[in-house]
Amino acid sequence: MADQHAVQNIVHPSVHARNPLQRFLIATELDTRLLGMVGALAIIWIGFHVFSGGLFLTPRNLWNLSVQTASVAVMVTGMVLVIVTRNIDLSVGSILGLVAMVMGVMQTDILPTQLGLGLGHPLIWVLSLAAGLIVGTGIGALQGSIIAYLRVPAFIVTLGGYLVWRGAAWWVTMGRTVAPMDPTFQLMGGGPTGSVGAFWSWVVGIVACCAIVAGLYMGRRQRRRFNFPLRPVWAEAALAIIGCGLTIAAVWVANAYPWPVRIAEKYAEATGMAIPPEGLFISHGIAIPVLIAMGVGMVMTFIATRTRFGRYVFAMGGNPEAAELAGINTRWVTVKIFMLMGALCAIAAAISSARLNAATNAMGTLDELYVIAAAVIGGTSLAGGVGTIAGALLGALVMQSLQSGMVLMGLDSPLQSIVVGIVLVFAVWLDTLYRRNKH
Q1: Domain count of the chain?
Q2: For 16-33, what is each residue's pLDDT tens digit?
Q3: Cis geometry, peptide bond prior to residue 153 (ω within 30 degrees of 0)
């Protein structure tokens, strides 16, 4: 009874707020920086939609935008942990290029020809992906060991890796493009067959909504268990409505983009499907690379916020000396962070090469800059100790939205680079102001 009475006497800070907006933000505990990014993203989308003549906010462009964001989104989840520990990784684009070449050669030459599996063997894509993960993780382990045990600054090690792995990618095939990829492997790149369709998209959406509601419920139970202030019930309901509303809207947009007419007609002929007079409408649904990026984001969020490894990472970023004195094996944690980064580069390489249906020497060029920019724009502090996976994923979407919008407007590549550079500097300046005001 005493515990229950104590819980009931705990007052949430929102009750003292007089401004309705302030009361809402405090009650829901939404991150104001994240909300600011959402507002900036909305302005970017609306602006590009107006200046592109109504081409940006269409199901087709938004679907393509989600697929284009997937590979950077996967890598930025690892870059958050790297930057949080006050390190940097300039080699992610080159690792992506090398791993893509390795997986391409595995699929077109080594497995079907040299090992005699034959083209189309069901194990080809599995073994190729496994080889890519091993190579990516191994590169990360090598770079992490040099940084942690030889005490060479991460900037120098990964700058060297940027040059070494890009050159190694060229040596794998002596500069030639490797194509085509295994048909099953291509599904990881999206496209009409690399999407789950309308029905399974709604299933994913319903499952996501249930997960949102369940997460809010479990969080409330945990707060009550440890006598933490409880959010008002209306705030919990508002969060559930907002989360489920955004999820349903995303699924609706994905389902509103149909297959191209010729591909749909060929599919109908192959399956004996009757084509109605108004034409055949087959929804793409959510693309498989988007599902991969969402899955990686959820796993990385769990790792960062719910595991001992994640706590060690943020402890190291906040105060490396104190973390070491507390008994954390900071060197081994550093190696594991870079191993994880290498594995995520391999997943991104699979998505990129599958989407292009080829592995080229230019693959991954400048990706390191987009990944770092997405992490910083998403609120990851270069001073270390601060960063969220959700913010970084939103930052990746902002970066890709800028690039996609400028392409729709017909801006030249040099001007696109200028805009991205200005946005990156502006984001770091905002981060500096934010930290200064907090102190």
Answers
A1: 1
A2: 555 777 888 888 888 787
A3: no
